[in-house]
Request: fold
Amino acid sequence: EVEVVDATIDALRAAKAKLTEAINEALQGGVAEAHLTEADNRRKKLHNQMEDLKGSIRVFCRVRPISKKELGQGDKSVTEAIDSMTLKVNEQQFQFDAVWTPGKQLDVFEDCKDLVQSA
Reply:
């Protein structure tokens, strides 16, 4: 059974890598992100299936918008969304299961609702 799970995880990992590469090539080729939403959602699903099989803990990141008060004080954002799973803070990149910049609570719930379980 362990070998079957490992083989499935490897297959999912390969599919995710191939899809990620295709998305990046499309972006570099000038395709708008809006046209790649379906592919990006599929990539997320592959990632989540892989994590389910591994039994991993999920880590999500929601970046709140800068408030008017902060803007008035001259504060600036130090985060940049590289893609829907990568966040750049100052010059360092971090990987998450999902990133919302800025994110609304409803957006977060829509992406996570399949993972939420009650006891």
Observations:
- The chain has four helices and five strands.
